[in-house]
UniProtKB/TrEMBL annotation:
It catalyses: D-glyceraldehyde 3-phosphate = dihydroxyacetone phosphate. It comes from the Bacteria. GO terms for biological process: gluconeogenesis; glyceraldehyde-3-phosphate biosynthetic process; glycerol catabolic process; glycolytic process. Substrate binds at residues 9-11, 173, 209, 230-231. It comes from candidate division WOR-1 bacterium RIFOXYC2_FULL_41_25. This is Triosephosphate isomerase. The gene is tpiA. It is found in: Cytoplasm. CDD domains: TIM.
Amino acid sequence: MRKPLLAGNWKMNKTIDESVALVKELAPLIKDVADREVLVCPTFPALKSVADAAANTNIMLGAQNIFWEEKGAFTAEVSGPMLVAAGCKYVIIGHSERRQYFGETDETVNKRVKAALKFNLLPIVCVGETLEQREANEMMKVVETQVKEGTKDLSADEWKKITIAYEPVWAIGTGKTASPEQAEEVHAFIRGLLPAEVKDSVRILYGGSMKPDNVADLMAKENIDGGLIGGAALKAADFAAIVKY
Ligand code: 13P
């Protein structure tokens, strides 16, 4: 009942031309895929060009962040209506790199989630523990706090629009994937935190060195409903292989 979502987070990679080239290379490789959703999340400057290049394909567009105000004197920020106008349907919120380098907190995650919902964007809320937290046995507590605080005060209708991404920080960009069992343990725990009305419908994506050769084993797990893919999403052939796991 949960349609898999395979989402490429391009992070701070690719110029406009390179982004358009990637989506044009990707589109024919996955054109027959209908039983799962495909999303790419380029940098802000490339959004509109990628949206145009992906028109009439099955590739959806997402942004990597959103500010909670609609407009005004907030230098360098980008608002929900601007993302919608550029063609975005989804927005990644609270990525661990935002938390680590840019002062993102559970409180600002919650503000962004509410702004995304207000402006008709679908939030992908990222959570995940560091290696230190895992080794100190704080993993579940960290993830629980991030999920609960990041999605605080949402109605059941709002919850229907949420996707959670579990990305253990130690697995991001390191080539070290969580084993399917390690990931499933946390995914099942996260599902247990969801409100009863949406427990079976909210998708929980896995992120962290997802690759063509490990995607099938991860996706075979009951509570893993897709992936948020970094490095491997930058190569059309690799991302297409992941999409078609
Ligand atoms: P990698 O796939 O490069 O490990 O990145 C995962 C990620 O952070 C996706 O948001």
